[in-house]
Amino acid sequence: MTALSAPRVRRSVERPRLSPLLRLLILTQLAFNIGFYAVLPFLSEHLGQAIGMAGWLVGFVLGLRTFSQQGLFVVGGALADRYGIRPVVLAGCALRIAGFTWLGHAEQTWSVIGAVLLIGFAAALFSPAVESEVARQAVLWEEESGGSRTRVLALFTVAGQAGAFVGPLLGALLLAVDFRTACLAGAGVFVLVLAGHAWLLPQRIPGRERVRAKGGLRALLRNRRFLALCCAYGAYLLAYNQLYLALPDEVERATGSQASLAWLFALSSLLVVTAQLPVTRWVGDRLALRRSMAVGLLLIAAGFAVVAVARPAGWSGTAGLVPAAGFVVLLTVGQMLVAPAARAWVPDLAEDGRLGLYTGALSSVSGLIVLVGSAATGSLLDAGLPSAVPWLALAAIPAAAVWLLPRRAT
User: Fold this and answer.
1) Fewer CB in a 10 Å sphere around the end CB: N or C, the chain?
2) Arithmetic mean of pLDDT, 64-85
3) 89 vs 110 pLDDT, higher one
């Protein structure tokens, strides 16, 4: 595959339309996130207040959810390479339905952890299957059109963020009943996704050859540039995970409740929906993949720094939400640069026929980083340190990740 080591020059050609399969997969991401984000933004408060977990345990459970999802992506990706995406996607949807239903009825710590693990593993099956096929189709579109594959992947991101915009609003409405209702609604969304994909997803996709699992992991572990990308992406994901841990804590401090949290999530999603494609188009014509990721990571670091600078002032009420909103905006813009570039980079680093494995490994390594980092972050936020210190420590993570990025594209 052709390396994207430099920005692309615009070409005045008529680009082909997206294939029906690619459109289905992009709509899949929209539906996935509607169901997921109807529940996840409110999980931290539910665990802390309804279940009564300590702050470190809430952080650990959230990290465990991410690890059981991201950490096991390598399994889902390898299964997709071996058996094709259809059975893996359908199995993942069925497990997500069971997990959300279980979570809605879980009242003890062990039961919550079991439900969270099932929810995460479900995504570890269907997400790498979908993402790897979208990346493969994006490369084919690039070869046909001469455009940048990041534009297709940006559209995939926009669909996901549109779902992340609708999901929290739906969840906030359902929480007027109770948390269980929100969980069951999320399960209902995945029932519809399961039925739709059983009908529409092809049994066999042209050009996607099934490969044996043996030997792929050994070559992956020797690929230093790919592992460096995984570590940098993991630092980004740990920073992004603070939307569910540090941000609720900041909103609670500023306003005395988490009622404004749904609107901050909506702000993030609205920014991606409206600005992702223009930003990707502008960046794709000017910045190579490495530089795009570096700028994005530094913007994310700046978002944490905004809250750190404002914390000593102790603003509350509406004024207290301004630093949180600044954090969300900078984190979101950074995400717009980092996420599509990282996904676009993977096909250049992956072994032929194992794009699912490499796509999954990207998330697995980052999931391990989030598992360790989230527990540490939860303890950091509860440690009683000067108010700016935890946010400065969080800012250092994406800033340091810039130095981990591979120096060459392939």
Assistant:
1) C
2) 83
3) 89
Please check whether residue 11 lies inside any domain of the structure.
no
- The whole-angstrom separation of Cα 399 and Cα 304 is 11
**Is the pLDDT assigned to residue 9 strictly greater than 60?**
no
Q: What's the full length of the chain, in residues?
A: 410
Q: What is the domain range of residue 140?
A: 20-202+224-404
Q: Is residue 214 in a domain?
A: no
Give a yes or no: residue 15 inside a domain: no
- Summarised one tens digit per residue, pLDDT across range 17-45 is 778 888 889 998 999 999 888 888 788 77
Q: How far is CA 242 from the centre of its chain?
A: 12
Q: Which residues of 42-51 are buried (b: 16+ CB within 10 A; e: fewer)?
A: bbbbbbbeeb
Are 234 and 369 within 8 A, CB to CB?
yes
- Residue 96 pLDDT > 50, yes or no? yes
User: What's the number of domains the chain is made of?
Assistant: 1
Q: Write out the DSSP string of 238-260.
A: HHHGGGTTHHHHHHHHHHSSSTT
**The two three-digit tokens of residue 234, written as one number:** 């993991």
Q: Is residue 209 assigned to a domain?
A: no
CA 363, 105, 53, 113 dihedral sign is: negative
Tell me which residue of 336, 307, 318, 297 sits closest to 246, measured CA to CA: 307
- Over 150-175, what HEC string results? HHHHHHHHHHHHHHHHHHHHHHHHHC
Per-residue confidence band for 98, with pLDDT thresholds at 50, 70 and 90 = very high
- We report the CATH number of the domain holding residue 276 as 1.20.1250.20
